[in-house]
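REVIEWER CHECKLIST
Item 1: Sequence provided? yes
Item 2: Single chain? yes
Item 3: Sequence as submitted:
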Amino acid sequence: MKQAEVTSFIEELAQPWQAELASSLRDMVHETVPGAEERIQYKKPHFLKNGKYAAVISTAKDAVSFVIFNAAEVEFPEGQFNGPPERKTIKFKAGQAADFDVLANLLKQASESL
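Item 4: Structure as written out by the authors:
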């Protein structure tokens, strides 16, 4: 279920491309993880399934990062994701396309056991 505080976070992003990407990532999470809860925590949108972290969207001055939790058992594409086995992060810069099908597939696999 979408929360007003997450909508506000996205609408207040300074860069239009960041707001567009964050909004698309948010929609993808809700399509991929039915019943996902969302909330602002540590000043960024967190998405939970059964009370456990499934994903996070965070922004920096020139990037949008998407974190997939519970990732240890999932095979991630080489060179695109960083982080320890339990959570993997992909970072997007302006003009860089996100492959939502790949992200949704990875998130689906990672969140199935939550």
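Item 5: Key structural point noted by reviewer: Helices lie at 4-11, 16-32, 100-111.
Item 6: Recommendation: ____
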